[in-house]
Amino acid sequence: MSGATPSASTGLEAEARRSIATGSKSFAGAARLLDPQARASASMLYAWCRYCDDVIDGQQSGFRAAAAALSPAERLATIRRETERVLAGEPITDAPFRALREVVQRHAIDPRYPRDLIEGFAMDVENRRYHTLADTLEYAYHVAGVVGIMMATIMGVRDEAVLDRACDLGIAFQLTNIARDVVEDAQAGRVYLPGAWLAEAGVPAGAIADPRMRAAVAWVTARLLREADAYYASALAGIGALPPRSALAIAAARAVYRAIGRKILRLGPSAWDGRVSTNPVEKTLLTLGALGTVGIAKAARMRPSREGLWTRPDCTCGTRRTGTDL
């Protein structure tokens, strides 16, 4: 257990909940379904992840103003250094890193996963390009799959096969995010769609945000969302292995994100006229539907095959996708 005092821990949790409320309404809604301890830890983990993401992007949320003048590479080095101090058990002052320390110590999270997440931030700093689907999936693992693994660990999961499914859900979320934000990302100089797919559709990487390319970009994102569906399906097996409240929270988050992807598919080229999301009524209905998903997953102990899915390093099941023509 952490050495933090109850009052200090409570303060970190309250600050983390505020971070979620402003940063992700979908996650905030799902987190309310968790039991109090899992909710507190999930909130603190999210707060650290969000903080690091904001720092890399040069945003000011929870970031010391003096550091804003640093280059992206320098900001990355700062995050890496502070995270290593947490993992080494050294004293730390910044709230997001104290929150990470609390979570890592409370749940014995494997240090490789915070490190893997930082490698995902490094991919953005390096302006990495993704030629194949496998390249995009590797990025999705680093920025979201590892978060799924850490969240599942918070919920008591130790079975590596179940962690594989948690990773799959994180990857599915990230593929959905890529599809939703593809134009906004392109305007910022970031391209996560496989370059080979863009070339096949006749879309130059520098023209993704061009309105004249919307139909072709919609075709590529639809292809990506079809890939995401395989990871959403695989995640069902993991949901069935979670404690009841955690299972409901994750099933609800899965339903909300999958619904966003389906909206993008329905909207086609007009999907980027505004930000695609689900409204409160839709979220409520999707959460109610998640009750049935949990019941089915637990009763059937569904084990959808992972054959052909990209798999995290050092996994225990499935075949890792490493091909260049996926």
List the keywords.
Farnesyl Diphosphate Synthase; 67% helix; mainly alpha; 13 helices
- Give me the Rg, rounded: 19 Å
Content of β-strand:
under 5%
Largest sheet: none
Could you say what the CATH topology of the largest domain is called?
A: Farnesyl Diphosphate Synthase
End-to-end CA span: 44 Å
Helix content: 55-70%
Explain what the structure shows.
- With 326 residues, the protein is mainly α.
- The protein is built from 13 helices and no strands.
- Helix 4 (72-87) packs across helix 5 (95-107).
- The longest helix is centred in the C-terminal third of the chain and has 27 residues, at 214-240.
- The termini are far apart.
In short:
This protein is mainly alpha-helical. The chain is built from 13 helices and no strands.
Write the layout of secondary structure elements.
Blueprint: H1 6-23, H2 25-31, H3 36-56, H4 72-87, H5 95-107, H6 112-125, H7 133-154, H8 160-180, H9 182-187, H10 195-201, H11 214-240, H12 244-267, H13 280-300
Helix pairs in contact: 1-3, 1-5, 2-12, 3-5, 3-6, 3-7, 4-5, 4-6, 6-7, 7-8, 8-11, 8-12, 11-12, 11-13, 12-13
